[in-house]
Amino acid sequence: MNLAAILRRHRWVVLLSVLLLAPVLVASTHAPVRVETQEAQPGYSVRDLEWTDAGRGRAVPVKLFWPDAARSGKVPLVVFSHGIGSARDGYTYLGHYWARHGIASIHVQHVGSDRALWQGNPLTLVSRFQQAAGEAEAVARVRDQRFALDQLLAGEWGTHVDRARIVAAGHSYGANTTLMSAGARVVRDGKAIDLRDPRFSAAIVISAPPFYGDDDFRPILSGITIPTLHVTTADDIIRIPGFGSGVDDRLKVFDAIGGAHKVLAVYRHGTHNVFTDHRYFDSREVSEQVKQATEALSLAFIDTAYGRSTAELARWQSGHRALLARYDAR
Questions:
Q1: Are the beta carbons of 186 and 1 closer than 8 angstroms?
Q2: Phi, psi of 302, rounded to the nearest 5 degrees
Q3: Beta-carbon count within 10 A of 37 CB
Q4: C-alpha to C-alpha distances, 258 to 12, 216, 247, 271, 330, nearest whole angstrom
Q5: Max Cα distance, the chain (Å)
């Protein structure tokens, strides 16, 4: 996949989204597995782990939310990818929620496009983010996801993961990473790179920027056949001089997906970053409503994706009708 062509314009989309985030310093250290912090919660635990992919010489820090339910059986697993300029602790509300409901999640930090980008000369900030949105890092993020899943499944935790219920998930740039892991495919100059990880059997795509380089996304995304959940807002708009990306781009991604089971929720309110842990431009009420609705929707989707009745999704829609500008389940 020639992602340079795809991300030539997409890099500006992700650049603006990270400029809305506050800089926070993060540290990445060496593996093998080492628990830097461990936090006990009723019904689950949270661990920060420092891993290194020796084959690439690249640190892959993760945050693991591990439910106590794994002691007596196998649990589903979500592998989450953050947006550019964020980190493994940028979406912890989802990890806590999933763990309380018996779902493990591992939140991967992508060191080439994480909060460390904020460090250094402010005059080179734009160029750093442009590089982070380029071809090499886009591919590296997918390999980070794959490596983190490899590590988890190879260890003791892996014996307690239901391998038939592994979900890829991400926000913004992380949503594109998720789509690539789910089977997005682009041909350039007669060459194609397929980075699909067949272990993922469902995907949660939050505020996905479009795949640029083609006017028609269907050849890129129609090969994604696993169940997908798409979440955005009517105010999920990114604007910079000479370019804009709004909710219509999210809808184009949804329409182009080829899976037989896909769900779209568009909330009436909420900015592009309403889905992160922090509240920037949204009221407290909007932030809490969107996050709580997204938590419940993700759980209903995971249940439905793995064979349960669609009644849970129908109940979610009925209960959140006032929040929704559009809902589509196919």
A1: yes
A2: -60, -45
A3: 9
A4: 27, 13, 19, 27, 11
A5: 55
DSSP one-letter code for 92: H
Predicted confidence pLDDT, tens digits, the chain (330 residues): 433 344 444 444 444 444 444 333 232 323 344 556 778 889 999 999 999 999 999 999 999 999 999 999 999 999 999 988 889 999 999 999 999 999 999 999 999 888 888 777 887 777 777 777 777 888 899 999 999 999 999 999 999 999 999 999 999 999 999 999 999 987 667 777 789 999 999 999 999 987 765 678 898 999 999 999 999 999 998 664 444 678 999 999 999 999 879 999 999 999 999 999 988 889 999 999 999 999 999 999 999 999 878 899 999 999 999 999 999 998
Q: Is 243 helix (H, G, I), strand (E, B) or coil?
A: strand
CA 92 to CA 173: how far, in whole Å?
17
What is the reported pTM?
0.87
Residue 297 parent element (H or E):
helix 284-305
Write phi, then psi, for 16 (nearest 5 degrees). Answer: -65, -40
